[in-house]
Specification:
The complex is a heterodimer of chains A (295) and B (156). Chain A is mainly alpha-helical and 295 residues long. Helix content of chain A is 67%, strand content 4%. The longest helix of chain A is centred in the C-terminal third of the chain and has 45 residues. Chain B is an all-alpha fold. Chain B contains 2 helices and no strands. The chains are: A mainly alpha (295), B mainly alpha (156).
């Protein structure tokens, strides 16, 4: 268990589920230790309440940092392989990378028939990056937080290592996908076509008046289904990983029994790690493919 | 679940990584893989061509082998024939040579015989003369009895 003996299981869980937040505290704010902030300052939050009170312009340094770090690993590794790519016989690691690329490419080709140079690299980035981020869940829950606490010398440091258990991260990506959905919908179908898609389906009529009457209903339905796409995309990934992380935390509180249980759950979790990354990638492809389709 | 600017940070990072992948990773790996694919396909086609050429060569080889076998047999049989001829002619030569030598030897023998006979004849004539001289106890005039002597020696 992390951070000392006197921690109840509830506190332990809460501590583990709190991000390391860097943000601005206003003047006169009473901090967690009773200290009053005399000057507005950028600082790390020392309690969940402080993190919330920092408002929107605060950063989850831990999850965002790991996310960027893992993204850099992905970019670096794949860039190395891409730079040395040749038509010669590929050796072990190159083979593995090419297998990933081939896997993503075949999935994209299967679903997405329009011509688009963004979709395949986008899918590859999503898949590999999300796999890497999810894999952080397989690191025993206390290892990296304890290391961070030891390095910084702060025994109460918040440190969340799995980026995909932070909704900010999953929504950051799904909103990126959402922007692409809207961009391609408008690019392929034009503004009129896109609005028509939102307002003229599923109820339509040959009578112009009835058609106009249907518009608000259609817009409501289609608007919800459009907005539901990024939300479901982000929440699915977040929910699965968050639940997995919670179970890891519960197991971590079991004393010695955690060892076999952790192993069993970790083995099962490998499936979730890969499956959720795959689902995120596939849904991205499907949504963008729908954005390219004419009705 | 409180949202903050992490979301924007992640959105920017996402964009950057996707663009990086699109510009510097994806095209190169895909191009290498496609090139390798065509290279393998070409290699396989070449191998197939080679296989066909090999089987053709195999057939040709068998034909040539058959042909050369026939030629060899022909040459051998010709050689045999020639050999027989040479042996035959050598035999003929030897035979005629033998006859020649035989004839020469006979001729020489004949000549020796006549010579010996002549010798003997003259020796007998002289012997007869000496014997007659002994009998008569006197000199026989060779000139006076020459014709008798010649007659006798001719009769011998």
């Amino acid at each position: 268990m992390a951070s000392g003996e006197g921690l109840t299981s509830n506190e332990y869980m809460q501590h583990h589920l709190q991000n390391l937040v860097y943000g601005k505290l206003p003047v006169g704010y009473e901090r967690a230790d009773g200290h009053i902030v005399e000057q507005a300052q950028w600082t790390f939050a020392h309690s969940p309440k402080e993190a919330v009170d920092m408002g929107f312009w605060a950063y989850n340094v831990d999850t965002l940092g790991w996310s960027i770090f893992l993204g850099l690993i992905f970019s670096f590794v794949f860039y190395r392989v891409a730079k040395n790519a040749s038509t010669d016989v590929p050796s072990g690691f190159t083979n593995f990378i090419e297998m990933c690329v081939e896997f993503v490419n075949s999935n994209v080709k299967e679903i997405f028939h329009a011509k688009n140079e963004v979709i395949a690299p986008l899918s590859l980035t999503i898949f590999c990056w999300v796999v890497l981020m999810n894999t952080m869940d397989l690191v025993p829950v206390d290892v990296l937080p304890l290391a961070a606490q030891w390095i910084t010398g702060d025994p109460h440091l918040y440190f969340k290592v799995v980026p995909t258990t932070d909704p900010n991260i999953t929504f950051g990506m799904s909103i990126g996908v959402f922007i692409l959905i809207i961009y391609y919908s408008i690019k392929i179908k034009g503004i009129g076509g896109f609005l028509g898609e939102l307002t003229l389906h599923p109820f339509s009529s040959n009578n112009l008046f009835v058609k106009i009457m249907f518009m608000p209903f259609n817009f409501l339905l289609e608007g919800v289904s459009l907005v539901a796409k990024p939300i479901s995309l982000a929440l699915r990934l977040f929910g699965n990983l968050y639940a997995g992380e919670l179970i890891f935390l519960l197991i971590a509180m079991l004393g010695y029994w955690q060892l076999p249980l952790h192993f069993v759950w970790a083995v099962f979790h490998i499936l979730i790690v890969l499956l959720q990354a795959f689902v995120f990638m596939m849904l991205t492809i499907v949504y963008l493919s729908m954005a390219h389709e004419h009705h | 679940m409180n949202f903050n600017a992490t979301l924007i940070g992640q959105l920017i990072a996402f964009t950057v990584f996707v663009v990086f992948c699109m510009k510097f990773i994806w095209p190169f790996i895909i191009k290498a893989m496609e090139d390798r694919e065509t290279r393998i396909a070409d290699g396989l086609a070449a191998a197939e061509k080679g296989q066909v050429a090999l089987s053709e060569a195999e057939v040709k080889k068998a034909e040539m082998l058959e042909e050369s076998k026939q030629q060899a047999a022909e040459i051998i049989s010709q050689g045999q024939k020639r050999h027989d001829e040479i042996v035959e002619s050598a035999k003929d030569d030897a035979r005629s040579e033998k006859e020649k030598i035989l004839a020469a030897a006979q001729a020489e023998i004949e000549q020796q015989r006549t010579q010996t006979r002549e010798q003997l004849r003259s020796d007998v004539a002289n012997l007869a003369l000496v014997a007659a001289e002994q009998i008569l106890m006197r000199e026989v005039d060779r000139n006076a009895h020459n014709d008798v002597l010649t007659k006798v020696s001719a009769e011998l």
